[in-house]
């Protein structure tokens, strides 16, 4: 699951995805740093500190699986 522009959304904890789902929250570095302070880490949960307009962030997401995308307005 790719959650683009995640902000302080807590969807990862509310949805509680099953085993086998790798979850990637992507947002600006300042936002990801705040998420690290506020929210616990968990298995299969990854934080990507980058603007989605930067060309390098997809390298942090494994390319061997078909992703689901989530973004909101």
UniProtKB/TrEMBL annotation:
InterPro entries given in the database record: Ppm1/Ppm2/Tcmp, SAM-dependent_MTases_sf
Coiled coil residues, start to end: none
One record GO biological process: methylation
Keywords: Methyltransferase, Transferase
Enzyme Commission number(s): 2.1.1.-
Record keyword Membrane present: no
A Pfam family that the UniProt record links to this protein: LCM
GO molecular-function term, one example from the UniProt record: methyltransferase activity
Lineage: superkingdom: Bacteria
Gene3D superfamilies named among the record's database cross-references: Vaccinia Virus protein VP39
Methyltransferase among keywords: yes
Protein name: Tetracenomycin polyketide synthesis O-methyltransferase tcmP
Organism the protein comes from: Mesorhizobium metallidurans STM 2683
């Amino acid at each position: 699951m790719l959650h683009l522009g995640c902000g302080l959304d807590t969807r990862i904890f509310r949805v509680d995805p099953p085993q086998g789902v790798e979850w990637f929250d992507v947002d600006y570095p300042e936002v990801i740093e705040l998420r690290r302070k506020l929210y616990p880490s968990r298995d299969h949960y990854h934080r990507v500190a980058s603007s989605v307009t930067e060309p390098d962030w997809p390298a942090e997401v494994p390319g061997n699986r078909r992703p689901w995308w989530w973004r909101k307005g």
